[in-house]
Automatic annotation (TrEMBL):
Pfam families: Isochorismatase (PF00857). Residues 7-180 form the Isochorismatase-like domain. This is Isochorismatase. One of its GO terms (molecular function) is hydrolase activity. Keywords: Hydrolase. InterPro entries: Isochorismatase-like_dom, Isochorismatase-like_hydrls, Isochorismatase-like_sf. The keyword Hydrolase applies. CDD domains: nicotinamidase_related. Gene3D superfamilies: Isochorismatase-like.
Amino acid sequence: MPDPLPALIVVDVQRAFDEWEAAGKRRNNPDAVARIVDLLAAFRASGAPIFHVRHEGTKPNSTFLPSRSGYAVKDEAREQGGEPVIVKRVNSAFIGTDLETRLRASDIATLVICGATTNHCVETTTRMAGNLGFNAQLVRDATWTFDRIGADGETHAAESIHAMTLSNLNGEFARIVTTNEVIASLKAVRQ
């Protein structure tokens, strides 16, 4: 019996990040959401499972509080009929949720992970996926992050943070892939 199709895990594609940008935070990978839209279309066309992850803030000033506009998912990445939404309160989509139980119950071994931000919730979810024994694939052009101030006060560019995160995950926790590679792989499985 062939392996089941991979599952797409879409992490935190929420409006809070648009608000951060509007407030002047600089990000990398401006086409990431368009690539996520491409992945959603390909997974839907192949009948492969999709899990949407949404971050629910817990601190009073969080832009991800359910009562705030930033909690809402971006329209282009919204779930469709029957696609589950996993709500998390920490960085990993596996902690305090039933994501792992759902994946195991469906015998899903391969996870294709995309979303925001590369070095926070995407990285933490990807690391845990690898540690839990899933075949994790992180889609490099379908995730993004923002400039950060380091402990030394130095500004680190989003592009550098993104690249370092991918380097840290590559090989040990996940295979780093592109949207085109994932879509080609899905098409090959369907044939």
